[in-house]
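S.,

Sequence below, as promised.
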Amino acid sequence: MDKAPGNWRDAWSRLGVPEPPSLLGALIARYSEPHRAYHNIRHIEECFHALAPAAHLAERLAEVHLALWFHDAIYDPRGKDNEQASADLARESVTRAGLEPDSASRIHELIMATRHEVPAELADARLLADVDLAILGSPAPRFLEYQAQIHQEYAWMPRDEFQRRRTMILRGFLERSAIYQTDWFAERLEKRARANIAGELGIS
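The prediction came back faster than expected:
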């Protein structure tokens, strides 16, 4: 594991609240569940790697760091409310640890932005959403690996049904005026993300 645990500890220090004992271990255990091929601890590490050069965009960096740690804490490929469940777990956990209600509510909102359904209102939520989608703009070898990992997570679903749903999601991204909500990520990843998606969909 890279620098992610350091970001966890630093976040609690910045927020002036003692790091909750065993909570990080519980999250790592969640991200180590066997059904996770993509939504695992590597995803968290890659998110922190994507965030690091753009951290200056954050208004409340410590809250962004905690939201990143929690944003896929609950992940069931068969479920439809993973983001909601993860956001609820985050708010409950950080509140129990002593974080102020306003901070806990913002963390909840940041995680809900990773549903990627509507543009986020909070600047930090836009940043977190872009970090979560940074994989779409990754170099071709990593993007192909990511594709295979998503296929693996949905191996239980009939192939035709998976392809229909995957195509709908990816076309939805292409139909947006911009995949990324911050200029910083759009300038660096938008073109490659669109090329990667077009390649997966077989669009020339």
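The chain is about 65% helix and 0% strand.

Coffee later?
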